[in-house]
UniProtKB/TrEMBL annotation:
Pathway of action: Amino-acid biosynthesis; L-methionine biosynthesis via de novo pathway; L-homocysteine from L-cystathionine: step 1/1
Listed name of the protein: Cystathionine beta-lyase
Entry EC no(s): 4.4.1.13
KW Lyase (keyword) present: yes
Gene: metC
Record keywords, A-Z: Lyase, Pyridoxal phosphate
Originating species: Castellaniella hirudinis
């Protein structure tokens, strides 16, 4: 098979970026090698001139190793097909992709509206860097009323994440994007949750999709990688300039690992999602569980939007439990199969406590949290590929330990 014209994600994930066949022997490996280089060699000055001219036209022609050769290109192509973009720009982490996209679109005197449920370090990027560059940001609820109230004449960007990765708040991306475009804003969406496979912001109205490939695309908790993907030529041009000027570069080995991880993105997402639903069913039956945050769960406030806009789910969920801090610490420490850790999207299960300060800054939390939820704790679980019966048994013994601790610490 030489072409891959299917748009079905599971098919294209297997066929993008295969190694070419050797024209002499007619043979080749399946997997593209990791092309490591700092320097690109040219056959002649004419070839070099042609490459430079193509680069000036904005084509992806490497004249130096910083942008990467075939391995990087294959990863970029795969991200474009997943996200429905024209160009993808790789960055050394998801956070680097976010800061690259914001720097590409914002300058002195500009203002950005940021939905308050986005990945927390976006606030830090504003506080430490963007504010020094004279960029203002407001963090607001992700609904039309909240956005409209904070709109300024100098607002240029709407930045959002759907679902938000702490409380899984689904946003009405098409409606918010329409509103943003009516006001001349560029919409940037963090699509780490969907990773192009189960949620596609560019098709739902966003202009730039940023992804931490560190999570589900890498999928094995062994690499850091980010990307910004866009379709519109003017936006592609801005990202291209900023990517180049910042000197963002990614190791060919990391691009290779991400490509390898992506081959199984579809099956991993489905397996994690199925396991997570089983865990939700168990959690729902626990008297100490007051709320489950998981868009694929029928009780989630965003379930209808998820049904309309997403084509699948994953293993990330949060749960509000009626345990005080001491009991929740006992619960977490009692878990044996869940690692205590911040990330998600790997093959393994993880648990963290959602910081109360993070909840306090989410308008969504303020709108739904009743007294019972406020008195308890929110845990975030990443449900991995373990047998769900074992995960449930692990949770059951940890809940039991938490219930039984009277004077724990
Ligand atoms: C992890 C994460 C990021 C940042 O990715 P890194 O590769 O860790 O820098 C950005 N957005 C979301 C939603 C994330 O979960």
């Amino acid at each position: 098979m030489t072409s891959h014209d299917s748009d079905r994600i599971d098919t294209l994930l297997q066929h993008i970026g295969q190694a070419p066949l050797d024209p002499v022997t007619g043979t080749g490996p399946v997997a593209l090698p990791s092309y490591r280089t700092s320097t690109v060699r040219f056959a002649s000055m004419d070839v070099l001139d042609q490459a430079q001219a193509a680069k000036q036209r904005g084509e992806r022609v490497p004249t130096y190793g910083r942008v990467g050769l075939q391995t990087h290109e294959a990863m970029e192509t795969l991200l474009c097909r997943l996200e429905g973009g024209e160009r993808a720009f790789l960055a050394p982490s998801g956070m680097a992709a976010i800061s690259m996209a914001l720097m590409a679109l914002l300058g002195q005197g500009d203002h950005a509206l940021v939905v308050d449920s986005v990945y927390g370090p976006v606030r830090y990027f504003h506080k430490t860097i963007l504010s020094r560059m004279g960029v203002a940001m407001d963090f607001v609820r992700g609904d039309l009323a909240g956005l409209q109230a904070a709109l300024r004449p100098e607002t240029r960007v709407l930045y959002l994440e759907s679902p938000g990765s702490l409380l899984m708040e689904m946003l009405d991306m098409p409606a918010l994007s329409r509103w943003a475009h009516e006001h001349g804003l560029t919409v940037v969406a963090d699509n780490t949750w969907g990773s192009g496979a189960i949620y596609r912001p560019l098709e739902l109205g966003a202009d730039v999709s940023v992804i931490a490939a560190t999570k589900y695309i890498g999928g094995h908790s062994d690499l850091m990688l980010g990307a910004a993907v866009a379709r519109d030529p003017a936006l592609v041009g801005k990202l291209h300039e900023t990517h180049y000027a910042l000197g963002n570069t990614v190791s060919a080995d990391d691009a290779w690992l991400a490509l390898r991880g992506a081959r199984t993105l579809g099956v991993r997402l489905r397996a994690c999602a199925e396991n997570a639903l089983e865990v939700c069913r168990w959690l729902d039956a626990q008297p100490q569980v007051s709320r489950i945050f998981f868009p694929a769960w029928p009780g989630d406030a965003g379930h209808a939007l998820w049904q309309r806009d997403a084509t699948g789910s994953n293993g990330l969920l949060s749960v509000a439990v009626d345990f005080d801090t001491a009991r929740v610490r006992r619960l977490i420490d009692s878990l044996r199969l869940f690692g205590i850790g911040y990330s998600w999207g790997g093959y393994e299960s993880l648990v963290t406590q959602v910081e109360p300060s993070a909840l306090a800054s989410h308008g969504y939390w303020a709108s739904i949290a009743d007294a019972r939820m406020k008195a308890g704790t929110v845990l975030r679980l990443h449900i991995g590929l373990e047998d769900p019966a074992d995960l449930i048994a692990d949770l059951a013994q940890a809940f039991e330990a938490a219930r039984g601790c009277d004077d724990p610490y």
